Backbone:
C-alpha cells in the first residue's frame, strides 16, 4: 500500500441535490496516495444512497448525529491518515487541473498549509475568485477552506472550535498565521464553491468574526478593526470588487 499523502473529507447532511457533483469530482482526482472520507450527519434524504452508488470511491463513511459541522470536521480529522487534509463540502466541486499541481507540492512536505484559489459559481463564468491571501487574515477571512490543504498534525493540535457555527475555519487559519505557521499560495484553481448554507447568515457570521478577532488579536484588535472599516468604506465609495 502506498503512503497516504492526502485525506479528502466531505461533511454532509441532506445534500442529495448536490452530492453527486462532489463525488464525481473526487473520483476524477482519486489516485494512490489519496483517501476519501465522508462524515454524514445522519442524512434522511437520498445522500447516503448516492454515496453507496459510487461503489468503492469512499474509503470510510460515518453516518451518525453530530453537534454541527465543526464537530463533524474534527471527527474526520481524527480518522484521517493522510499527511495533509482537504475539506470539500457536499455542494462544492474539486477542479482537477489545479488539484494535480497542488498534489505535486504536497509530496515535498515543506509547508504547513498550502492554499489555492476557490471560484464561486461556475468554472466558465465565476461570480467571484477567492484568492488566498494569508497576510490579510488579521483583517479579513482571506483563506478559502475548500482549496486549503492543511497538515493533519496542525488540525489535531488545533481542532476547530465547536462553539462557533460559521467561522471556526477562519479562527483556525488566523491562529496558525499568528503562530508563524508556514503558508504557501499556489496560483491555481482547485475548487468551485456555491454560496449559501450557514455561511449565508451574514449577521451571525459578522458577530463571530468580530469575536474571533477580538480574542486572537488582543490590544491590536481596535487598530485593525479601524483599518478594516476604512477599507470597506473605500470599497463602497469606489465600487472596488471584493477579493
Residues:
Amino acid at each position: 500500500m502506498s503512503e497516504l499523502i492526502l485525506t479528502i473529507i466531505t461533511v454532509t447532511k441532506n445534500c442529495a441535490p448536490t452530492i453527486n457533483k462532489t463525488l464525481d469530482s473526487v473520483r476524477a482526482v482519486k489516485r494512490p496516495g489519496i483517501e476519501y472520507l465522508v462524515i454524514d450527519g445522519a442524512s434522511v434524504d437520498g445522500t447516503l444512497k448516492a454515496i453507496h452508488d459510487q461503489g468503492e470511491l469512499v474509503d470510510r463513511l460515518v453516518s451518525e448525529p453530530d453537534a454541527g459541522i465543526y464537530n463533524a470536521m474534527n471527527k474526520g480529522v481524527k480518522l484521517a491518515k493522510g499527511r495533509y487534509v482537504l475539506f470539500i463540502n457536499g455542494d462544492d466541486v474539486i477542479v482537477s487541473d489545479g488539484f494535480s499541481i497542488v498534489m505535486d507540492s504536497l509530496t515535498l512536505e515543506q509547508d504547513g498549509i498550502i492554499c489555492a484559489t476557490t471560484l464561486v459559481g461556475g468554472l466558465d463564468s465565476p461570480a467571484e475568485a477567492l484568492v488566498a491571501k494569508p497576510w490579510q487574515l488579521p483583517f479579513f477571512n482571506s483563506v478559502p477552506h475548500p482549496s486549503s490543504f492543511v497538515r493533519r498534525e496542525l488540525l489535531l493540535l488545533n481542532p476547530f472550535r465547536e462553539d462557533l457555527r460559521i467561522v471556526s475555519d477562519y479562527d483556525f487559519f488566523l491562529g496558525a498565521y499568528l503562530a508563524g505557521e508556514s503558508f504557501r499560495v499556489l496560483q491555481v484553481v482547485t475548487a468551485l464553491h456555491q454560496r449559501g448554507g450557514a455561511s449565508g447568515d451574514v449577521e451571525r457570521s459578522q458577530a463571530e468574526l468580530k469575536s474571533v478577532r477580538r480574542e486572537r488579536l488582543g490590544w491590536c484588535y481596535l487598530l485593525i478593526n479601524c483599518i478594516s472599516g476604512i477599507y470597506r468604506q473605500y470599497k463602497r465609495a469606489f465600487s472596488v470588487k471584493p477579493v
